[in-house]
Amino acid sequence: MSTLEADAMREITYCDALREALREEMLRDDRVFLLGEDVGKHWHGAFKVSRGLAEEFGEERVRDTPISESAIVGAAIGAAITGMRPIAEIMFGDLSTLAMDQIANQAAKIRYMFGGQTAVPMVVRMPFGAGASVAAHHSQSLEAWFMHVPGLLVAVPSTPYDAKGLLKTAIRNDNPVMFFEHKLLYGMKGSVPEDEYLVPFGEADVKRSGKDVTIVATLFMVHKALAAAEALAKDGVSVEVIDPRTLTPLDTETIVNSVKKTGRVVIVTEGCRTAGVGAEVAAILAEEAIDYLDAPIKRVAEPDTPIPFSPVLENFVIPDEKKIIKAVKDVL
Amino acid sequence: METYPLLEKEKLKELYRKMLEIRRFEDTVFELFGKNLIPGTIHLYAGEEAVAVGVCANLRKDDYITSTHRGHGHCIAKGAQLKRIMAEIFGKKTGYCKGKGGSMHIADFSVGMLGATAVVGAGIPIATGAGLSIKLRGTDQAAACFFGDGASNQGTFHEGINLAATWSLPVIYVCENNLYAMGTSQSAVMRIKDVADRASSYGIPGVTVDGNDVLAVYNAANEAIKRARAGKGPTLLECKTYRRRGHSRFDPATYRPEEEAEAWLKRDPLPRFRTQLLETAALTLEEITRVEEAVSAAVEAAVQFAMESPYPTPEEALDDVYA
Ligand SMILES: Cc1ncc(C[n+]2csc(CCOP(=O)(O)OP(=O)(O)O)c2C)c(N)n1
Ligand SMILES: [Mg+2]
């Protein structure tokens, strides 16, 4: 079932949806536990995702850690290869940089390097993204970095429905999953079924169907793309919005098929333009759909700068509806 | 009351003035944040003034400091201008970082303030590097590195201090132990009570002082900095202190037991020092009042400057990426 079909159900926030996923998986599997800075009863995570969990499952399974990102991820790895299924929270995605060796050299390579003897079933959850005026150390979108590391999976939910379904899948997956939660989405409400469901990895979701232009967008940008599509519809332009939902694995088939149909594509992501998510999608389209393209591929992304603090500056760098509409008009 | 080597009257007045500047500045920032005039988030230094002021009063303009997310107090103590700090917090073009940094990232290289990092613990090895540069250039400068109890659990703490110890660099590592890292109490994340105990594993002096007593901090820092300038290497100076408010924004800090908070807030470094100054007749009430009036005026002027300053133009977002 896609998000669109889920309309008739109850509405909960992205934050609540994530919490439900954590709770359900902790109830389902004793091996699942949480560790991170202030995830416990005093703070419940910087964005309150783990509210109530320490109270329900106890401090053994919802563990507050010192401010030691490298040890948080490293400990998760050690636990994962010895029978547990840890979920590590890094308070802000920018700070995954402190755990980069553990993520990129250890978690990602252990299975391969040791000839498949073991697996690293763990999730690293990270709030991330720009738009909250918290400057260069708390605003980055680093998904593309992790796409570049074989062995890691990368999930990028844009709705409460996807957030819950993808997180449950991530927890059950036997590989290290980098799970990106956009900080501006936590409060966003959306339909989520009462009944259990999973969202599989590697299955893009067509968030809006259209025939003139394809927009591939991720995370918060999905919503800006949908708003742009709505505005463009008034001008008679029919836009299809595709949300990959996971970047590794990437559902190239859905993207390529859409572009074959529309012949035009705009890729909208946060994160710097150079060597970003959009660059990979564009390269795939160049390889697999170039004969179907009626216009150059367009990327809308952040310029190659850190995220500035002042809202005037920050709004300038984050892709918005206007920039998306302009890009669509450019390829028409 | 403890007695200390006599400081000159002007020095005492300066200590009081700086501490009060920080307090009034932070109270004002809190108020303005509440009125939605400041974007993003804030981490206030109120309650911890004696640490930055006691340390920086020993530093020269050409000495260095590194700072943290809770950095306004460090800037003020090192001699940065209130109005340009405030303008930065407002995201204005006239701020120290042209609006690019904001509350968590203020720097004033003209007074040796090498910048505030919001990555907890990241300033520690950078201060080590400033110390290395001093040594390589053969000057008698020193560097002070501010960080929290929480930061002392980062790998950078171990790596940065061990390196400085090994190379006898002129740095003092100032742990502002306010007993909490966000909602996590120190006792939940380390077995020791005094972070300064860790100094022994680097073979350097570790000193713990009452961080709410500006003269205690001043004296301890004085010794550490003398040692640093004399080429004898770094010191780990732990100052026990307490935030007057929550960690950030509107955090009500309910994780702090009431009795604990009450006891600490009674030891507020400002009224404490004021009383001390009056009781020892170091300053007269009239002199103190004059300082207080001047500080209020300076903070007001800073707010006005920030409010009246222009925002950067959007395209300035693209500047300064490369030198
Ligand atoms: C590396 C890193 N991890 C986590 C955070 C989120 N965070 C910001 S401040 C803070 C607590 C810092 O505690 P401490 O070092 O004691 O300084 P204090 O806030 O008490 O002054 C945390 C966890 C961060 N900014 N950087
Ligand atoms: Mg602290």
Distance between the termini of chain B: 53 Å
Strand order of the largest sheet of chain B: 2-1-3-4-8-7
Structural class determined from secondary elements of chain A: alpha/beta
Determine and state the CATH class of chain B.
Answer: Alpha Beta
Number of helices of chain A: 12
Total number of helices of chain B: 11
CATH homology superfamily of chain B:
Thiamin diphosphate (ThDP)-binding fold, Pyr/PP domains
Radius of gyration of chain B (CA) equals 19 Å
Low-confidence stretches of chain B: none
The total count of strands of chain B amounts to 8
What does this structure look like?
- The complex is a heterodimer of chains A (332) and B (323).
- By secondary structure, chain A is of the alpha/beta class.
- Chain A has helices spanning 14-28, 53-57, 69-80, 100-107, 110-113, 143-147, 160-172, 220-234, 252-262, 277-288, 311-317, 321-331; strands at residues 11-13, 32-36, 62-64, 85-89, 123-128, 153-155, 177-182, 189-191, 205-208, 213-217, 239-243, 246-248, 265-272, 298-302.
- Chain A has 2 domains: 8-193, 3-Layer(aba) Sandwich (Rossmann fold), CATH 3.40.50.970; 205-331, 3-Layer(aba) Sandwich (Rossmann fold).
- In chain A, the strands form 3 sheets. A 7-stranded mixed β-sheet of chain A has the order 3-2-4-5-7-6-12, with helices on both faces. A 5-stranded mixed β-sheet of chain A has the order 9-11-10-13-14, with helices on both faces. In chain A, strands 1-8 form a two-stranded antiparallel ribbon.
- In chain A, helix 2 (53-57) links the parallel strand 2 (32-36) and strand 3 (62-64).
- The mean pLDDT of chain A is 97.
- Chain B is of the alpha/beta class.
- Chain B has 11 helices and 8 strands.
- Chain B has helices at 9-34, 49-56, 72-78, 82-90, 123-137, 155-166, 186-189, 214-229, 258-266, 269-279, 285-308; strands at residues 64-67, 113-116, 143-148, 171-177, 180-181, 184-185, 206-210, 235-240.
- In chain B, helix 2 (49-56) runs parallel beside helix 3 (72-78).
- The mean pLDDT of chain B is 97.
- Chains A and B meet through helix 11 of A and loops of B.
- Magnesium ion binds at residues 148-150, 178, 180-181 of chain B.
